[in-house]
Amino acid sequence: MRPPLQLRHVAPRLATGAFILNSGLSKRRMDPESAAGLHGMATHAYPFLDKLPPTTFARLLSAGETALGAALLLPVVPTALAGAALTAFSAGLVGLYLRTPGMREEGSLRPTQEGTALAKDVWLLGVGLGFVLDEATSRDR
């Protein structure tokens, strides 16, 4: 039986886990004005989020990012599970980038100056997909 964490997964799990954990912890005590701005951007891309009050949305996002970051950092969490969660989370971020006006150059996937902060999250999607595919195709499963 394989251990839940392969040596080749350590560096990307540490990098993504620390990045996401820090992001989640920084949102823990978000002021109402910042929460409203974050919520407004998210609801533009995902209208169903409009049902949540901004402070609740920020609190839930903080908890989700904190849990995902911890899952990536904890070696007892299998990489396939952590990778699937990272893929789902980062797909949402890429969707936010694609659906938010002004983030991309007209008729292109290339980011505008304002969109670079969101466009860079595609690396999280790549890491998550890499974990899932590596675990799904590994011969020593």
From TrEMBL:
It comes from the Bacteria. The chain crosses the membrane at residues 70-98. Keywords: Membrane, Transmembrane, Transmembrane helix. This is DoxX family membrane protein. It comes from Streptomyces chumphonensis.
